Amino acid sequence: MTDRAAPVIGTRPVRHDGVDKVTGRASYGADLAMPDMLHGAVLRSPHAHARILSIDTRAAEAMPGVKAVITAADIPECFATVAMGELPMDMHDGSDNVIARTKVLYHGHVVAAVAATTVDAASEAARRIEVVYDKLKPVLGIDEAIAPDAPILHAGLTAGDWAGQAAGRPTNVASRMELKRGDLAQGFAAADTIVEHEFRTTMVHQGYIEPHACLARYGQDGRVSVWTSTQGPFLVRDQCAAILDIDAAKIKVTPSEIGGGFGGKIVVYLEPLAIALSRKANRPVKMVMSRDEVFRASGPTSGTVIRMKMGATRDGTLVAASASLWYEAGAYRGSPAGAGAMCCLASYKIPNFLIEAYDVVVNKPKVAAYRAPGSPMSTFATESLVDELARTLGMDPIELRLKNAVAEGDKAPYGPAYGPIGLQDVLRAAQRHPHWKAPLGKNQGRGVACGFWFNGGMGSSASVTLGADGSAAVVTGNPDIGGTRVAQAMMVAEELGIPVERVRASVADTDTAGYTDLTGGSRVCYATGMAVIRAARDVRDQLRGRAAKIWDVPIDAVGWDAGRAVPPNGRGDREALTVADLAAQLPKTGGPIVGHAALYAPAAGPGFAAHICDLEVDPETGGSRVVRYTAFQDVGRAVHAGYVEGQMQGGVAQGVGWALNEEYIYADDGVMQNAGFLDYRMPVASDLPMIETVMIEVANPLHPYGVRGVGEVPIVPPLAAVANAMRDATGVRFTELPLSPPRVLNGLEKSSA
Amino acid sequence: MPIRYEAPESVAQAIGLMQADPSARIIAGGTDLLVRFRAGQERPSAFIDVKRIPELVRITVDDGGLHLGAAASAADICEHADVRRWWPGLVEAVHLIGSTQIQGRATVGGNLCNGSPAADATCALIVNQARCVIAGPGGERTIPVEEFCTGPGRTALARGEVLVEVRMPRPAPRTADAYLRLIPRTEMDIAVAGAAVSVTLDEAGTCTAARVAIGAVAPTALDVPDAAGALVGTTIDEAALERAAAAARAAARPIDDKRGPAAYRRTVVGVLTRRAAHIAATRARGL
Amino acid sequence: MSRLHIETTINGEPVEFLCEAQDSLLAALRDQAGLTGTKEGCTTGDCGACSVLLDGRLVPSCLVLAAEVQGRRVTTIEGIATGDRLHPLQQRFLEHAALQCGICTPGFIVAAKALLDANPHPTEEEARYWLAGNLCRCTGYDKIIRAVMAVAND
């Protein structure tokens, strides 16, 4: 093993869990089994909106192989909240979503669950449960939900004085928030050009390839073990504790490997059911969702209606913007409308604006986080209008953006001033890149768009242990979705000056890992990484202390350079001691060394990106294809360059799918018509070209290496980048997504008529 | 009653099993049947696996033309040197069915028996004058492929009958075909509209025979004699292409569904007919 | 019970298992043969996560009945490496960071092996169309295709 002197950060080592993943040995949620295990199946509502009048489980209970049947009656009504970072999570709704108590609020809403000796027996038994419903008219979109005679989902939800809803009366509009600055009327009065459109997007799904899966065991001692595919094991613990009224200290959650999350594996769906079934049956219970169930009954993101207006002076200065954002929350309140409001103008200095955001309940699955939740839809509106302004003013679209782009010291729309940020850098990089000037072929168009996401901080813990052979192990509680274990190993290697192959990075369970907030919010490399660095520095300082002991000098006299404790000047009789040297002497110098850190990271460095998309359109069929794509992003500091590029490319692909072909298609009865990968059309390998990535590093001063969250920003620009390319290729401005061939052909025919 | 699995080794055995139990289902590739089964849309009493019956999996070419076993996989068909040489348009169409994985399983027989109006193979079979050889308790019969599917999910098979093979004559000299379909992505989707065209040219480049079939725009794939008629006697110039497209549009009886609105399908089937005819003509001219 | 007794060869080894007539090969591999490397993403043949080779032919194991593999040869992801030597595809996937969550990776490697067996030097377009039946939601396919092309160009 060679000694390591060169920096590790920024290189591309093979990830430590990689061999397991390319050989099929890695264990995901559905790969786990236990002796004596039962299988759980769920009975789901056949109606999008109905009252539950009665549930008769006797026929199911009598079936061979059935060991337990549960309904909401087996679970106490929940009035708890769970801390999730800065926001509390209302578990009354969360609990009702897990299993319906009095009303079913979407097609697929859980009504009962069965545990039996085989999957087939459990499903067959679930079908024998008799439920009597009082069917109600479903509400399937924003327009329907806010209509004066709309059916009301929640009798207790009453309106404030907003947007035509009668204050104090039952409503489907759960909340309103507002951001404003300056004087809107004056702002628009000063504008030489004003553009305004109504934009529409549909519900879409994160599309992770691994369906939800878990295995729960309720022991006779009242201790619960849960293995599950999740982004947040501590959150699973706390949600299950709240929903089932079990002491959280009695629940241990072990995260399996996770086959994609993107925000959709934070809220619990199966785990409370599996635990309750296991408690009743006295045996472990495994539950796996089918793909159909994932689409119908997990947590997609909001469909939206967004009306936005922007004004500029003739030299391209943005002077005013107003927007009303209407986001579907699904069956219970809580859409990302607020985040959408905070993000949509975040890239620009606009002195006068008013953004209103409305959270609307509809009879669809409760929405969950999806990669930069709320931002892609509202940014679609902004970046489409900015594109229109550029055309109207005859300005280059990147020049117009540069003219108004925020920089350090400018105030974000939601209040604080930005620290060092890279928006102008990414825009200039885009402008200079050969893609921007490359000639376009027939029926091809080019669009540019930029985007923003705050990124998260929150709490993380880490511990780093030193082995007697000078190797190290780092342990955190963050499931590794995209390469964070290798990034953590690289940080430890960097801090201790040992080869990255000599560091093992593990993900531990909720009993053995220090508390950490979820894997999400683009926070693991940043915040958990910060804890890892601090823990590694703790080890390093302890090693200096051991060297001090060996040399009989004060610890302050011991230096550290590239993996060696260095003796004070003038002590030429002492050799520097490597980590391996010191590790070999641990027992003699004081025993084992473990470094710890637990911190609450300040809100992270915000991320900005700009994307250029070339689209080729078939004007006779409305079909289109992305033929070239370049993504520019301020990544702060790329720890593992390959996995940062991967985050950018993955976000682009999801955004392209959202723009072109992905949508939830509902029939009038509220039943989703395309709940499978055949007709929910995500991009396949032949749909996309190579996705070029350009990483710009504007160091985030909050982090020792300058790391900034990178995972979410890249899904924000593509919706408008694609729509702007479509405008360029066809001359038609499309304001409704997805740009499926029938919609595009219809738009082309209308515009030439 | 638990479901049975049977693997007959002769056509007679298969007929006997199907005749005895009308709730049994033949499984070839399973790419439609198993999807319906897992969705709870169908519950057969038995899966009758016909892939061990030689006549159903063989692919042979003789003076009579092509004998395509109903249960030969798309992958086997598309790799077969003689089929690629003499029926490239058919290979093109069959190759579009699903993904590479699906190709390893899907069969032309299954594609026909599933009775989907959007099946990719059917249009190409029609323009290649394919005929279906059916064996049953009453003996063997042969019908033109365009009569095989009688409606969405419905076929001309009677109780106890099994589709054994699909036969196609050798194409006449200077004959070429093409199949195009419209899908939103580049792969994996069910056709929103499809069109197959076969043309035969004489030495002067005039079209002496043609066939046009359109798919996904009616309860079954449709043979469109008017569209073919628009090409015959012409040099397949722009005007003829446009007339063929118009005839295809007129023959289409599409519905609105989650894969596309009716008006869109009608427009696009015209575009595809014109393009497929142009490609077929270009290919025929090069022969 | 009417379970079928199936004798087959998986990754070169003789294997026996019991199954119902309606069980898929995917379920038999995962639940009977203990080979959980092949993944379930959809059970409708649309995602490729369940890809295996059946007598060398790439198929979706969710749409093969377990009973059908009597007397046949199945190759799964567990049979791609040779002893402790990774297959070049596995090696290149690691070097190119061609996986993020890794759930689609077994299916891609089996499918890519089938590609290179049939066509040792595909173009990028040929590789993309061959692999169109394997969904990945994390990578945008870029690094996967680069890894496959790297092996093809070796």
Give a description of the structure.
The complex is a heterotrimer of chains A (753), B (287) and C (154). Chain A is an alpha+beta fold. The termini of chain A are far apart. Chain A is built from 21 helices and 28 strands. The mean pLDDT of chain A is 95. In chain A, helix 15 packs parallel to helix 16 and helix 19 (641-660) crosses helix 20 (718-730). Chain A has a seven-stranded mixed β-sheet with strand order 3-7-1-14-11-12-13. Chain A is 28% helix and 25% strand. Chain B has 287 residues and is of the alpha+beta class. Chain B has helices spanning 11-20, 33-38, 54-57, 74-79, 81-86, 88-95, 100-103, 108-114, 120-127, 225-231, 238-251, 262-285; strands at 4-6, 24-27, 46-49, 59-62, 65-69, 131-136, 139-144, 149-151, 154-155, 162-168, 175-182, 193-201, 207-215, 222-223. In chain B, the strands form four sheets. In chain B, strands 4-5-10-6-7 form a five-stranded antiparallel β-sheet. Chain B has a four-stranded antiparallel β-sheet with strand order 11-12-13-14, sandwiched between helices. In chain B, strands 1-3-2 form a three-stranded parallel β-sheet, covered by helices on one side. In chain B, a hairpin with a 5-residue loop joins strand 12 and strand 13 (207-215). Chain C is of the alpha+beta class. Chain C folds into two domains: 4-79, Roll (Ubiquitin-like (UB roll)); 88-152, [2Fe-2S]-binding domain (DNA polymerase, domain 1, Orthogonal Bundle). Chain C is 31% helix and 16% strand. In chain C, helix 2 (88-95) packs across helix 5 (142-152). The longest helix of chain C has 14 residues, at 105-118. The radius of gyration of chain C is 15 Å and the shape is globular. Chain C starts with a strand and ends with a helix. In chain C, 67% of the residues are buried. At the A-C interface, helix 1 and helix 19 of A face helix 2, helix 3, helix 4 and helix 5 of C.
